[in-house]
């Protein structure tokens, strides 16, 4: 048995695959600690794992207050110089706290598994304490895109002096190579090679297949009768969700989808999510009976009964949609979502649209001619079969165990 610490950061969708990995490792007899932000602890504890507070909080309220920060189509609210100084100050404040927390958590650990934004700490812990660490990612954009590699290197160069300063402050005597710190012989990519393949620079990443999170309660979950009747009506409904991503103008975005669904004679189910889509945003002259709002729920039940999912392009949502043969429309706002939208187009499993230029007629036309078609459904089913055949968590656990055995 190994003592394994897993640390991740980001939105809910970034954390959940790592919780799934923690559960899979614990089921194989290992002791697992999850070092995550406070608001993820209910998910961790609910999965039967140990939760340790690590990292700055990210609440829905805070995200909504700064919705424009999540939207790369928007003009920056501050200058590039001000943004650099703000990021530098955040590093100087947060990094020492996270590092010291991880030192305490990992004191008796056999292995430290770091999510993407924690790789830096894995390299630092290895340098100072010779702690074995594994670089993990569940976001293929960062290992499958040449463009991202160039941009990342340019940004890192700007922060080298700050990182050296922080490193020295924390007692790390030998300076790290901040341009290559994530280079580690032990690396896992928790996504499917059928969706995107690693570039040569990241060929050392073992690509396992997606890591699907399943809450214990999901196995017995049943919808209430009102939801069941709404979803299981005549034609399958459309499904709108931006998950944990806020939007600048939720009413405008919602009503475009409501009107497009009306135009196609389809019902629309809407997840409130961090965008806070809700009944009060509906126009008076729309048919509210054909729109159903839901909170966080097991998507597995819903996606098998959905004609199309319309979303921001998060990889977790894409993976689960593909697992259930559900075509999609991607409306990307930032980060890896643009890359994911390109992959969806290339694979022929859906469409992509500009979230600020989308119109009722345009969305209805794209849905009817490009997504709600036999060809798109067929391609989605073929890809879904390949993804269901992968055993992402099993493959990841076997690789992790092989590391522990060799070390």
From TrEMBL:
Keywords associated with the record: Transferase
InterPro entries: EryCIII-like_C (IPR010610), Glycosyltransferase_28 (IPR050426), UDP_glucos_trans (IPR002213)
Highest taxon, organism lineage: Bacteria
Gene Ontology MF annotations: hexosyltransferase activity; UDP-glycosyltransferase activity
Domain Erythromycin biosynthesis protein CIII-like C-terminal: 289-374
PANTHER family reported in the protein's UniProt record: STEROL 3-BETA-GLUCOSYLTRANSFERASE, STEROL 3-BETA-GLUCOSYLTRANSFERASE UGT80A2
Protein name as catalogued: Glycosyl transferase, UDP-glucuronosyltransferase
Organism: Beggiatoa alba B18LD
Source species taxonomy: Bacteria, Pseudomonadati, Pseudomonadota, Gammaproteobacteria, Thiotrichales
């Amino acid at each position: 048995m190994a003592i394994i610490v897993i640390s991740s950061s980001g939105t809910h969708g970034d954390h959940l695959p790592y919780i799934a990995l923690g559960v899979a490792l614990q089921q194989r007899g290992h002791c697992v600690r999850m070092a995550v932000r406070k608001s993820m602890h209910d998910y961790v504890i609910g999965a039967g794992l140990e939760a340790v507070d690590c990292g700055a909080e990210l609440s829905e309220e805070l995200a909504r207050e700064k919705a424009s920060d999540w939207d790369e189509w928007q003009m920056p609210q501050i200058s590039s110089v001000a943004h650099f100084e703000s990021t530098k100050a955040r590093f100087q404040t947060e990094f020492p706290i996270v590092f010291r927390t991880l030192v305490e958590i990992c004191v008796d650990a056999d292995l430290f598994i770091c999510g993407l934004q924690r790789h830096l700490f894995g390299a630092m812990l290895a340098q100072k304490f010779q702690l074995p660490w594994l670089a993990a990612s569940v976001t293929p954009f960062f290992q499958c895109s040449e463009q991202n590699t160039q941009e990342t290197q340019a940004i890192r160069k700007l922060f080298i002096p700050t990182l050296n300063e922080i490193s020295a402050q924390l007692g790390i005597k030998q300076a790290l190579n901040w341009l290559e710190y994530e280079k580690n012989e032990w690396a896992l990519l928790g996504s499917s090679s059928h969706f995107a393949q690693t570039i040569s620079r990241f060929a050392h990443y073992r690509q396992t297949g997606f890591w699907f999170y399943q809450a214990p309660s999901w196995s017995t979950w049943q919808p209430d009768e009102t939801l069941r009747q709404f979803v299981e009506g005549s034609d399958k409904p459309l499904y709108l969700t931006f998950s944990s991503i806020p939007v600048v103008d939720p009413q405008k975005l919602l009503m475009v989808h409501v009107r497009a669904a009306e135009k196609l004679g389809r019902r629309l189910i809407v997840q409130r999510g961090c965008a806070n889509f809700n009944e009060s945003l509906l126009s008076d002259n729309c048919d509210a009976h054909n729109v159903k709002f839901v909170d966080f729920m097991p998507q597995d039940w819903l996606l098998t009964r959905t004609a199309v999912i319309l979303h921001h392009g998060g990889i977790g949502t894409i993976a689960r949609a593909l697992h259930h043969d559900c075509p999609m429309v991607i409306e990307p706002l930032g980060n890896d979502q643009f890359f994911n939208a390109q992959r969806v187009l290339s694979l022929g499993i859906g469409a992509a649209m500009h979230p600020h230029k989308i119109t009722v007629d345009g969305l209805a036309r794209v849905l009817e001619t490009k997504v709600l078609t036999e060809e798109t459904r067929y391609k989605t089913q073929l890809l879904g079969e390949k993804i269901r055949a992968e055993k992402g968590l099993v493959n990841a656990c076997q690789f992790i165990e092989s590391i522990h055995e060799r070390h």
